[in-house]
User: What shape does this take?
Amino acid sequence: MAKGKYYPRICDQIIKKKLSASGALLIEGPKACGKTETGKHFAKSTLFLQNPNKYDEYRSILNTEPSLLLKGDKPRLIDEWQDAPKIFDAVRFDVDQTGNTGGYILTGSASPRKNNRPKHSGTGRFARLKMYPMSLFESKESTGSVSLKQLFENKDYKIEGESLLKFEDIVRVICRGGWPNAVINKNNKNKNVSEQFISDYIDSIINIDISVDNITRNPQRMRQILRSYARNISTMATKQTIFDDIKANDVGISRPTLDSYLNVLVQLFIIDEVEAWSTELRSKTAVRTSNKLQFVDPSIAAAVLGFNADKIINNSEIKFLGFLFESLVVRDLRIYSQPIGGTVYHYRDKNNLEVDCIIELKDGTWAAAEVKLGGDESIENAAQNLLKLKKKVKTEPSFLMVVVGIGQYAYRRQDGILVVPIGTLKD
Assistant: This one.
């Protein structure tokens, strides 16, 4: 992130609330999504556990008197806490003793190893927040004229707005991703500069981060697994599908080995699957419960498969682009729904009625969204799917929406379904 400049994040409002109510806040998410910069924005003092000049000193203190590392103005930011889980227990103990709120912000880009986890879960002392790369509204590429919060809260909310994103723009934001260090280079004359970031990011995962749990793994095997997973994003492909795909070129792989590699990607917050929606239907239709495969950001899938924006733009018939666009929309809907306590699911039943995104709030209020790149026919098909789902569910949705990529205006159809370009959405 550019020095001295902070790009506001949607989760800022959540952080303020959580710090006011809890003794400490744990911010988790993939590396380079902006956790540290966001934490620094709220912190009055910092502790960087990965500082090479202080590394040995910090380890020595943690083994003797960890409370010394908690000294400093509050809130105190402790970065990459999972590298020294004892600090978690020290923070929890301090919160217990003082009873103060908003004392600590801990950031982490991986889960701690099983044999080195804190002694206490932190329940009742720690609030938690999952952080994602930037949404299009945060990167200032969505006009934000349509508010997800208002769609839920106000049935008379007037839908209007204009997206400034064209086809080429959609492709570029998919391949670039929402990584802050890539976003700040979006206006660079060399359009490939920001895409280079995600390529280097994946190389780091494959060659360094795969041993986060101190288990040696094969970088080439990890690359093959990432590629197979990427080929199946935004689908309900099973682990067996991925296993069969990998085994064609890697006869030595076993299911437990595949699970180990996939679990590391979960630990690193790279894989972020969409769970199936469970709700009460009017009929006894069986609902499929498999997760839909998804990365935390669409750029990961594009990069591991060797797609860059220019390749896709010059071959606009590529079918895979629709899956990448769905990945982008899922990421943004997850971010926009966080302040209102929303969770993004997917729906599919035994009759193969499928709806890409269900946004459910904690009180059971829900809305549904289909994702389409654009085109009158695809929008119409998506609208019919949404209406079929509405008839099956016992409770009424707050709204039904088709999120499009190639579309200029947000509007409400005569049947009440919203057509909303991704370039107009915000929280």
